[in-house]
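Q: I'm building a small set of examples for a reading group on sequence design. Run inverse folding on the following structure and report the sequence directly after it, with nothing in between.
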């Protein structure tokens, strides 16, 4: 299995390295190795809370407004502490376990870091 990246133009898996460039033999696209390295650094997930603080896995946050829970008659109250969060990709970018509710996904715009 090759560790070389796929071609960004045609998504071909047959790319090869030539000096400081990657080359695709199918569409003749050439791109710099430095661009691929920079894109790999940019792919790191950055999630910010409602105040703009950067969140990390394992942080403790507080819910800043009452949130309705889909499929439940009760709601999460403002001020509820959520410990040991996990950041994920997607619209609801925080996975956590809340006492009394269980596993849940939250949006980072409704929490603040403690």
């Amino acid at each position: 299995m090759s560790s070389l990246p796929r071609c960004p133009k045609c998504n071909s898996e047959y790319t090869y390295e030539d000096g400081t460039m990657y080359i695709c033999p199918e569409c003749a696209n050439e791109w710099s190795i430095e661009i691929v390295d920079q894109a790999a650094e940019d792919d790191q997930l950055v999630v910010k809370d409602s105040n703009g603080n950067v969140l990390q896995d394992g942080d403790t946050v507080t819910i800043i407004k009452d949130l309705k829970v889909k499929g439940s008659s009760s709601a999460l109250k403002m001020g509820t502490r959520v410990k040991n969060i996990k950041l994920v990709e997607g619209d609801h970018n925080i996975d956590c376990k809340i006492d009394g509710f269980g596993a849940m996904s939250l949006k980072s715009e409704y929490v603040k870091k403690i």
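The first helix runs from residue 33 to 42.
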